[in-house]
Amino acid sequence: MIFRKPLPPTPVLETARLILRPYAERDLDAVQRIFPQWEVVRWLHAGIPWPYPDDGAATNWAQCVEQRAKGEKFFWAITLKGDDALRGRIDLWPFDGEKRDMRGFWLDPALHGQGVMTEAAEAVTEYAFRVLEWPFLYLTNALANRASGRVKEKQGAIPVDVERRDYLSGPADGQIWRLDRDAWLARRG
Question: Which CATH superfamily, name and number, covers 13-136?
Answer without folding.
Answer: Gcn5-related N-acetyltransferase (GNAT) (3.40.630.30)
